[in-house]
Amino acid sequence: MDSYSELNCAGIGFGLGFAVVIDSIKNRSLISEGSFYWGGAASTLFWVDPAEDLTVGFYTQLVPPSTYPLRRELQQLVYQALAD
Known about the structure:
The chain is an alpha+beta fold. Helices cover 19% and strands 24% of the residues. It has helices at residues 24-27, 70-81; strands spanning 12-14, 19-21, 36-39, 45-49, 54-58. It is globular.
């Protein structure tokens, strides 16, 4: 995990302005491979998961982002709430 962010960057690639999940097992997350996201300095986050037909925007003002793991917890709560 990088010191500037609470999100794990293992299994992540970077494209045209976005981070892209390449390997969700290495990333240790519930996000589908092929999803893309980006976060801001004040703990903001958006991500798009085409496999789940999901778009999430999270806007807050918590600086620095590593103060509290809001992004990781939000991802876990959203994916745990999905029902097929």
